[in-house]
Amino acid sequence: MKTKAPIVPLTQMEVSRRIGVNFTTVCRYANGSRMPSMPVLMKIFKEFDVSPDEQERLMTAINRKKTLDQRRKVFGKWMETNVFAAPKVS
User: Fold this and answer.
1) Distance (Å, rounded) from C-alpha 36 to C-alpha 27?
2) Fewer Cβ atoms within 10 Å of its own Cβ: the N or the C terminal residue of the chain?
3) What is the CATH number of domain 8-85?
4) CA Rg, the chain, in Å?
5) What span, in angstroms and rounded, lies between the C-alpha atoms of 55 and 1?
6) Using CA atoms, how far apart are residues 26 and 22, in angstroms rounded to an integer?
7) Strand ranges in the chain using DSSP code E only, listed in sequence order
8) Selected residue with higher pLDDT from 85 and 45
9) pTM (2 decimals)?
């Protein structure tokens, strides 16, 4: 009987490879010091199968913030919750 492989979260390095950006850039997304460009954001949505409803929720949450710093923090928290927590089979 086969057992399922354990599910582990993705690392920032794995995310950077999957979306085609530098590791440091992904770190900056995660810590809220940088926002991705629209093409990179669309790549993130596609690579991690983000539903249109979730995309809309994220964009609404970002757009409600008045400052760029606040917007970056919203995106960083979203990345931590929805991308780095995304399981992979090891």
Assistant:
1) 11
2) N
3) 1.10.260
4) 14
5) 39
6) 7
7) 7-9, 87-89
8) 45
9) 0.80
Where are the domains positioned within the chain?
A: 8-85
CA distance 66 to 33: 16
Burial 34-54 (b: 16+ CB within 10 A, else e): bbbeeebbebbbeebebeeee
pLDDT for 86 equals 65
CA distance 21 to 86: 18
- Secondary structure string (H, E, C) spanning 5-18: CCEEECCHHHHHHH
Q: Is the dihedral of CA 33, 37, 43, 45 positive or negative?
A: positive
Burial tier of 83 (Cβ tally within 10 Å: 0-12, 13-18, 19+):
buried
Per-residue model confidence as pLDDT tens digits over 11-63: 889 999 999 999 999 999 999 999 999 999 999 999 989 999 999 999 999 99
